[in-house]
Amino acid sequence: MARPPSPPAVRRVAISPDDGTAIDLRNPALAAALSWLIPGLGQLYQGRTFKGVIFLVTLLGTFLSGMWIGGGNVVYASWRRGETRWAFLGQAGIGAAAVPALIQSSAVGGSARQPVANSSWFVPPLARGQEVSEAFAQRVVATDPDVAAEDFRRQPGVGMRYEPRHSGGQLSLWHRRLGRFFDIGTLYTMLAGLLNLLVIYDAWAGPMRPARPADEEDDPDETRPPPRRGPDR
Predict the structure, then answer these.
(1) Number of other residues whose CB lies within 10 A of the CB of residue 213
(2) Alpha-carbon distance 209 to 104, whole Å?
(3) What is the pTM of this model?
(4) Which of 47, 86, 104, 205 is the most buried (most CB within 10 A)?
(5) How many helical (H) and strand (E) elements, i.e. helices and strands, does the chain have?
(6) Between vectors from CA 144 to CA 142 and to CA 145, what angle results, nearest 5°?
(7) Which run of H or of E encompasses 154?
(8) Nearest 5 degrees, angle CA 122-CA 88-CA 125?
(9) Does residue 107 contact residue 72 with C-beta atoms inside 8 Å?
(10) Which of 51, 38, 49 is nearest to 208 (CA)?
(11) How far apart are CA 195 and CA 193, in angstroms?
C-alpha cells in the first residue's frame, strides 16, 4: 500500500515593515546561529543580502577595530578569582570570538597548560604563579614584549611557572602598556557583541515592526456606519 505523500513543509515568513512584502526566513534557528557566529551571516543565508552585508561590515568591523585598538589582547574568557572577565559576556555575542576564547581558557587551565595550537589569540593573561608548558612559555616570550624569559621558573615534572619580576601578572602589563586603549578596545568589542543580539533576533523572527499608534489600531466599531442624527430641537 502506497504511503500518502507528506505535506509540504511550511516555511516561516515575516512581513517587511517597509513595503509589506513577505520575507522567507527559511530555517530561523539555523539563521540565528549563523548570525551569532558571524554578524549578518544568517541574513545572507536568508537571501537578505543588503542587510546582511551592512551587519557584517559594521559589527564585524567594530569588533575587529576594538581588537586592534586593544593590541589583540582584549577578547578572552577568565573566571579566576579577582580576574573574572565580565566584559566577555558582552563579547560573547559574536561566536567567532566566543568559541575560541572558551576553548583557550579551558585548555590553559587544564592539565595540558598550553593553549590550542600553542596560539596566543584569545588566551587569558597569565597570573603570577600560573603553571604553563615550556612551549607556551617560549611562545609568550616571543609574542609579548612585556614578558621576558627570566619571568618563568622551571618546575620539575610541571613545565614552567610564571613568576614575573614585577608585581601583578600579565594583565597589569597590558594595562600599563596600552593604557586607556585597553578599555576602549574592550568597549568596542562589547558593543559589537551586544548589538549583534539584535541581529540574531532579526534572523530568528524577522524585522521588528514598529508599534501602531493607538488611534490606528483596528476597531470593530470603525466598520459600522455612523449613527443617524435626528433633527435638532
Answers:
(1) 7
(2) 40
(3) 0.80
(4) 104
(5) 8, 5
(6) 95
(7) strand 152-155
(8) 45
(9) no
(10) 51
(11) 6
Helix (H) or strand (E) holding 22: strand 22-26
Counting Cβ atoms within 10 Å, is residue 134 exposed (0-12), middle (13-18) or buried (19+)?
middle
| Structural contact between residues 35 and 43, judged by C-beta atoms closer than 8 angstroms | yes
The x, y and z cell numbers of residue 145, run together, are 614584549
**Tens-digit pLDDT profile for residues 208-225:** 766 555 555 555 554 445
- How do residues 52-89 score in pLDDT, each as one tens digit? 999 999 999 999 999 999 999 999 999 887 788 999 99
Angle at which helices 180-205 and 95-109 cross, to 10°: 120
Q: How far apart are CA 60 and CA 193, in angstroms?
A: 9
pLDDT at 90 over 90: yes
Contact 196, 39 (CB under 8 A): yes
Q: For residue 40, which of 170, 187, 196, 176 has the smallest C-alpha distance?
A: 196
- Cα torsion 170, 176, 179, 183: sign: positive
At 169, list the grid cell. Answer: 601578572
Q: Point out which residues pair with 26 in neighbouring strands.
A: 12
- What percentage of the chain reaches a pLDDT higher than 90? 47
Q: How many residues does the chain have?
A: 233
* pLDDT tens-digit map of 29-39: 999 999 999 99
Q: Cell match 530555517: residue?
A: 27
Q: At what angle do helices 180-205 and 28-37 cross, to 10 degrees?
A: 170
Pairing of strands 22-26, 152-155: unpaired
| Identity of the amino acid at 119 | S
